[in-house]
Amino acid sequence: MAIHFKLLKKNISAPANYEDFLIENRIKINQYLNRTLLFCVLTGPALALGVAIGIFKNVSYLACLFISIFVLILALSHILITKHFPESEYTSIYALFILDVLLLYMAYSHVYLRITWFLVPMLSLLFCSFKIYYFSLFITYFMMLLTTWITAPFFADQRSDYVSSMQFFANVVGGNTIEIIIMAIVGFGLLKTSHRYIREFYEMYKTISDNEQQVTESIDTLSSMAGIYDRVNLLNFRTMTEKSLTDTNTTKSFLHFDGCDHTSMVTGMKNHIAPEQMDSFWEFTNLTTLRERLLDKKSISAEFINITTGWFRAQYITVDKNEDGIPITIIFTVQNIENDKKKEERLIRIAMTDELTHLYNRRSYDDDIAIYRKNGLDDDFTLLSADVNGLKITNDTKGHAAGDELIRGAADCLHVCIGQTGKVYRTGGDEFIAILHTDNYSDLISEIAAMARSWSGQYTDSISISIGCASHKEFPDATVDELERISDRRMYENKEQYYRQTGHDRRKKQDN
Hints:
Blueprint lengths: L5 H4 L8 H22 L3 H10 L8 H24 L4 H20 L10 H6 L5 H29 L6 H64 L2 E6 L4 E4 L8 E2 L9 H6 L8 H7 L2 H8 L4 E8 L3 E12 L5 E10 L1 H15 L9 H14 L5 E8 L2 H8 L1 H19 L3 E5 L4 E7 L3 H13 L11 E7 L8 H23 L3 H4 L3
Helix pairs in contact: 2-4, 2-5, 3-4, 4-5, 5-7, 7-8, 14-15, 15-16
């Protein structure tokens, strides 16, 4: 069954549906019929040649000229109609009508090619339209009747077996009627069968076209991804292959689950992974569990440390799935995030660090202490509370720059003396808390006091720090919050003792 499939060979999108495809086909067939009708202009010269060599004895040269002029007018009219109504079924019917008129005029000019009457309905099958086909049958049959009626006297006179033109007309029409009925039945079967196969072919092509479009979009996406990531590999579980998309010089390698549950790319990265992360990296990149882990997910990722280049993010991205929803095409990407990690750590450090003293701040303390509330206390857990003495007097007499110097001095004393024993936090103006892990905090308090006595600054020659401690060993039944209250109470007791010894009146000076 001939039909226009030229558009399927071009690198263009298929029509949205089968009906649109038929319209595209109708437009193309109309264009072909334009050319056919223009070619039929040569019918006149061809007949004239036949007249010259004696084939058409009853045809005049004038009739040949009129045939060419008549066909040219009809062809030009069809071109005009096609230009304005290229999709119309009536444009196609008009083209077939022109062919029937041409046959009628040729028969009138005594050029009778009987078999061509059935060529017109056959041509109509190209449009894959029952409407056009039925119109073509009706028009052709009507034109055959008309042609036979017009030419019956001439042909009846040429033959001795007919006593009248009516007898000739009846005989020819009877045969043509039988033939047109057979033509109608056969054509209907051909058209119905063609519709089914063409529809199936179109649906198959549409599926292929859509898949190709998806592949094209995927390739475009992958090309852009290749510019973002340091390495991009395509894992195809349908063909069991691995291909680098960033290194065009590499060839495909095959994926073998038997004795090899990782890709060649991952195997090459193994020696550069930080030892403490090797187990988790090997588990994340395991091919035997990869597709199961990607079920109902677009991607999975994890972050690891390359001992040479620093932090990187490994990510698996689902590109395509099979009919059961199992990933069959997966992208594996590697992206260096060392700079991002540094920025992240810097932001975290800023968020968790006191600007004046560079110690940890209250937020950091709350986060750390929450862990102990949740997980319980170690045997050597100790809380230390500290407060700067005389800060209010220093601020009032020497200015806030001197007061800030005292706070930084106290922070330095606490930080240096505590060292690896714990973490120091500035939780208020001149208030400090330290989380310690020590069995003997008394020596630590003495060390802090000694360092404070030896301290001197630009604005102030000395510094005094009140300290209170409470340990889990001393109060095994106490909670974190209760230990904090005990250490605070002991710190304030130490502060009261300092003011009694120095003779300062805290209530009068409103010092803290």
